[in-house]
Amino acid sequence: MLNTTFFPDSVPPRPTGRYAHIILLRETDSYALFQTDGELNTARVHAGVAQTDMLTRITIFKRKQTTPERLIGRELLRRYGFISAEQAPEGKERKSDDRGVLIDRAGLPICDYNVEFCKQCPDCIMYGFAIGDAGSEKSKVYTDTAYSLSAFDVSHEAFTLNAPYEGGTMSRKGEVTSRINEQDHVRPQTLFPAVITVRDPSVPLFLYVLNNVLRTRRYGAQTTRTGTMTNHVLGIVLADGEIFSNLHFTQRIYDYLAERSMLDPVQPIAVDAALSAAREVAAVLVKEDQVAVSQHLRGEELGGFLAEFSGRIRDEAGMRELLQAAARDSAAYHSAYIQKKGKK
Question: Which pTM was predicted?
Answer without folding.
Answer: 0.91
